[in-house]
Amino acid sequence: MKEDDLLKKWLNNDLTDAEKKAFSERDDYAINQNIIEKAEHFKASNFSKANDFETFKNAYQNRTPVKRLNWIKPLMRMAGVFLIGFGLYFTIFNSDLTETQTLASEQETISLPDLSEVTLNAASKITYDESTWNSKRSLNLDGEAYFKVAKGKTFDVITDNGIVTVVGTEFNVKSRLNYFEVKCYEGIVKVTSDTIVRQLVAGETYRVLNKTFTEDKITDLQPKWTNNRSAFKAIPFKTVIEELERQYNVEVTFKGVDSSRLFTGHFVNDNLENALISITKPMNLSFEISLPNQVLIHGKTN
């Protein structure tokens, strides 16, 4: 008889006298007997149901090993999530990032924390951190702006095309696609664009247009665009039209026009028809306004 069958019959109290004698001589008899005696002191739960030996055996053999919990890795993950969350909280709630943006055909004057003034031209944007302004006067510019800087610590205007550094002065910065220009109206400014570094005094200009650097002189006391006039000196006609589109929120198309020709002159920012006359007549061109925001400029036919 198999040992498991003998154990089963013993548990069910079905052993014959001979089987009892054989079972009592087994090496594990004392252990089995001890288990039975101790089990008599336990009372089964009302919700428990005793399993037979085969069920018990199968359950024991097919039991799922208990895995030891590795608490270090989950703890490290939790710590990482906490640190990331804390960093995001600190960045979002402890940053006083201020942004001012103008739309097409719009201008706006902003007073900075040190009472410096910035006048934004159409379709332009400045961004600065107000919480660090007292220790670091620095802002980012995308577009064109006229600055009246209060005296104090170094004042930086950062653009994609270059950096302008001053202490206290008046100057204009224009940073558009392939066009970077600085005009100094008062004091001294330092301009850095790529490897070209210059220090400008009142009446001097710095320009990088289509990767070509030039310097010039001015006699104006402030930018003409602050008085509703956009002025140009030897600027490609295409660049002039881009400024017209910003000032009037229009879309201009060409027909039979060499847009690389250079233009010197100005146009007003408060009357589209007059502005178009000012820039087309000197170039021997004509224009049509088909819709409120659609303009066609074409060469005159003989």
> Percent range for helical residues?
25-40%
Oligomer: single chain
Rg (C-alpha, Å): 43 Å
Order of helices and strands: HHHHHEEEEEEEEEEEEEEHEEHEE
Assign the CATH topology of the largest domain.
Answer: Jelly Rolls
Percent range for β-strand residues: 35-45%
Low-confidence stretches: 42-50, 88-92
Alpha carbon gap, first and last residue: 123 Å
Name of the CATH class of the largest domain: Mainly Beta
Kindly state the number of beta strands.
18
| Average pLDDT figure | 83
CATH architecture of the largest domain: Sandwich
Overall description:
About 5% of the residues have low confidence. The protein folds into 3 domains: 59 residues, no CATH class; 129 residues, Jelly Rolls, CATH 2.60.120.1440; 72 residues, Phage tail protein beta-alpha-beta fold, CATH 3.55.50. Helices cover 26% and strands 36% of the residues. It is elongated. It has 302 residues and is of the alpha+beta class. The protein contains 7 helices and 18 strands. The strands form 3 sheets. Strands 1, 2, 3, 4, 5, 6, 7, 8, 9, 10, 11, 12 and 13 form a 13-stranded mixed beta sheet that branches. A 3-stranded mixed beta sheet has the order 15-18-17, covered by helices on one side. The longest helix is centred in the N-terminal third of the chain and has 22 residues.
